[in-house]
Structures are given as structure tokens and as C-alpha cells.
Amino acid sequence: MTLELRDVSVDLGPRRILSDVSLTVRDRAFVGLLGPNGSGKTTLLKSVTRVNRPAAGSVLLDGRTVHELRAREVARRIAFVGQETVVEFDITVRDMVMLGRLPHQRAYAADNETDRSVVASALATVDCSHLATRTFHTLSGGEKQRVLVARALTQQADHLVLDEPTAHLDIRYQTEILELVAGLGLTVLVALHDLGLAAMYCDEVHLLSSGRLCASGPPGQVITVERVQQVYGADVIVIAHPETGTPQLLPRRAVSNLRAAR
């Protein structure tokens, strides 16, 4: 178990955002981080990637605290794909993906043949080779997400951390992105809003509520009617997916609305 959080608490200004969170991410597991808006998912992921320093507790990589490691060393082990990437200038897809090679390059060094080969391979992996000369800001949402995954792959890290990679995407791109990530063979920690997709793709999920970890385990044990009501305040029906058997959620309509509809 190379990635572990031990009793992690994080403060942003005067507010405590995470409190005493402990979890482990097994090697090569696809692990989901769930919870409503404001529950602390992004804060936790930023703690894993050294952006947020815990007020208490530790984030460990191979038993060593990530904040004691050099940023370059962590970047060679953990690649991050954020919710949104805003680019204020024209940059080609190839150059955007090449940015992932920075942890492996000397300062101010030019791209070498190895860098170019790694970038070409990453673009091919995400099926974006044909986009290499396009400017990043002209891409669709799904294309951008695949390119950002390619950039992460060029870091050649064995851990991939993603924050809401399916946000704002239609159902085709949501499943394409998760299928892509699931097939990489990496250790994956991903924050997701869609509980049905999380249940389909994740080996294990961790559920946050108000900055605290309230449940961990296989999706079928964590995603229940009672927990969704308690944590999300949503009235749902949970059914088994007809092909995978994983839990899928159906929202309930209010009784008054059902009568009005008739």
C-alpha cells in the first residue's frame, strides 16, 4: 500500500475543511472519493499532491511524507488531472502534453527524442494523435479531458489522481474517460459526483461528509439508500445494474408532483 493518509486534517484560513481522515489506496486499485459539494474531496486530493499541507496527520508515499519529498520526486510518482484547465494563450495539444515531461527534464533543457516519443505514445493511448497540432482551447470538453490524461501519462507516474474528470461531459465522454483510466493499470484515486459511475468502475470507494470520512469499502456496501439520504439528503431508489450488478440510483419524485403529473 504505497499511498496512505493517516489522520489528515486540513485548514483553509480559519476553517477546518478535513478532519482526521485516514485511508489507504491499494496498488493498482481504482479508488473513488465520493461526497456532496463542499465535503472536502478536492481539498483531500490537493493534500495528496502537496498543494495543501495538512494541519495534522500525514500523507505517505512508500512510507515517506509527501511534504518531505522534493516536488519533482512526487511528480514522478503522482500525476494529477484537475477539474478545469483554463489556458489564456494559444498552445498546441502536443505542447500541452509535453508539459508533463517537466519532472524528467533539467531546468531550461530542450525537449529530446525520449520526450517526443513519450508524448507521441501518450497521445496514441488516449486516441488523440490526430489532435496534436490543434490548439488546446479549440477542443471539445471530452477531447480536453483526454489530452489532460495524456499529459499526466507523460509524467510516467504510477499513481493517477483525478478531480471530477467527468464533470460537464455527456454520457459518451464520461464512460470513455473512465474506461480509458481503468485500462491504464495504474493506481487511481478519483473524485466523482456520479455514484452510479463510481459503482461501475471503482474497486473501493470512500465517502466524505462535512470533511469527515463516514464510510469506506466496496461500492455495494457504501452506496445504500440510507447513506445517500443521510449524506446527500436525497430520496432515491437503489437498484442493481442488470449487467454488472453494481448499485445504480434512481431519484424519487415527491408524491405531490406525481399527483400533479397525472
CATH architecture term of the largest domain = 3-Layer(aba) Sandwich
Q: Kindly, what is the distance between the CA atoms of the first and last residues, rounded to a whole number of angstroms?
A: 55 Å
Backbone CA Rg? 20 Å
Number of E-type strands:
12
pLDDT < 50 stretches:
none
Q: Determine the strand fraction and express it as a percent band.
A: 25-35%
- CATH superfamily descriptor of the largest domain: P-loop containing nucleotide triphosphate hydrolases
What order do the helices and strands follow? EEEHEEHEHHHEHEHEEHHEEH
Helix-and-strand structural type = alpha/beta
CATH domain fold name of the largest domain: Rossmann fold
Question: How many DSSP helices?
Answer: 10
Q: What percentage of residues falls in helices of 4 or more residues?
A: 25-40%
Global morphology: globular
Q: Characterize the biggest β-sheet.
A: 6 strands, mixed
CATH class of the largest domain: Alpha Beta
Protein described:
The chain is 32% helix and 27% strand. With 262 residues, it is of the alpha/beta class. It has two domains: 1-77 and 157-218, 3-Layer(aba) Sandwich (Rossmann fold); 92-156, no CATH class. Strands 6-7-8-3-9-10 form a six-stranded mixed β-sheet, sandwiched between helices. A four-stranded antiparallel β-sheet has the order 2-1-4-5, with helices on one face. Strands 11-12 form a two-stranded antiparallel sheet. β4 and β5 (64-65) form a beta hairpin. The longest helix is centred in the middle third of the chain and has 13 residues, at 113-125.
